[in-house]
Amino acid sequence: MQDSSAEKANMGFIAAIVAVATIGGFMFGYDSGVINGTQKGLEAAFDLGKVGIGINVGAILVGSSIGAFCAGRLADRIGRRGVMKAAAALFLVSALLAGAAGSSAIFIFARIIGGLGVGAASVISPVYISEVVPASVRGRLSSVQQVMIITGLTGAFVVNYVLAHYAGGSTATLWAGQPAWRWMFWLQAVPAAIYFLALMGIPESPRYLVAIGREGEAQAVLTRLLGANAAARKLVEIRQSLASDHHRPSLADLKDPTTGRIRKLVWTGIGLAVFQQLVGINVVFYYGATLWQAVGFSEADALQINIISGVISIGGCLATLALVDRIGRKPLLLIGS
């Protein structure tokens, strides 16, 4: 039987909220993928060697780790929407500054700023979605985040290809006397600005509002999302959940209290994350254009192949969404491996 709260839910409004929140995932992918295709320009502009390119390309990951680590606690202070707005602002600043960078140091700083946004968005967008959508559709809608990440990557590849093709190469002059590779970063400001403005139109998480004592606002949001009857029940549920949860998370929680050792589940999570990175896909996403040119493809063909890689990745995500509740998580992990 379908959940009655889902029957009365304002699914149009919920879909709009999810669409806005998952722009954070799109920006995550775009900010990560835009670097692919700009490396010839970086080398020429900043006189970089291979090590220098690696540092400039990898700078975003430094910011990402910091942003992901801090996002949770910051969200409990300024709200989920507040953190997403901060991430959108970071994306915007990073895009403008990276495109205008006159030195490698400034470029690295700009990419670290973008990384802070990537890390924050990757943590908070799924949390926000899970706190505003009905339980009956929570899994499916939360999974849209991953699709949007890959879509953002592919979007960056498409933009890079179009700009390089129009200019005649990534280092060729495009508009305002500036090379195409700089415009690849500057155009990222467009979705970043859309993300920031769109966030103005969505409500704060009801759970956060209850946690800070603004129950009237929380009930108004829940009523708009779920309907009056379901909102009243959900408000009571949130109150009870917060009242029973007095534990403040700490690193000590990673240990099994009976054995004093790190929990097996933690090692499983770390292992999955590590092996997911070691398959090598990040090399393709960050250095694809360089790799294809190294084996004889032209820059234009290399950028086209990037698009193909991104489209195939989107197809893989969509197939996973269609199959995950049918065949389970573990078989899909094995198939991916």
How would you sum up this structure, described in words?
This protein has 337 residues and is mainly α. It has helices spanning 4-8, 11-21, 23-33, 39-46, 50-78, 80-100, 104-132, 135-167, 180-186, 189-199, 206-211, 215-226, 228-244, 264-278, 281-294, 299-327, 329-336. Helix 3 (23-33) packs parallel to helix 8 (135-167), helix 6 runs antiparallel to helix 7 and helix 7 packs antiparallel against helix 8. Mean pLDDT is 84; it is low at 1-7.
Number of strands: 0
Unreliable stretches (pLDDT < 50, length at least 5) are 1-7
- CATH fold assignment of the domain at 4-202: Growth Hormone, Chain: A
With helices defined by DSSP (H or I, 4 residues minimum), what is the helix count?
17
The chain-level structural class is mainly alpha
Principal-axis shape equals globular
Cα distance, first to last residue? 36 Å
Largest sheet: none
Mean pLDDT: 84
Provide the β-strand percentage band. under 5%
Q: Return the CATH architecture of the domain at 4-202.
A: Up-down Bundle
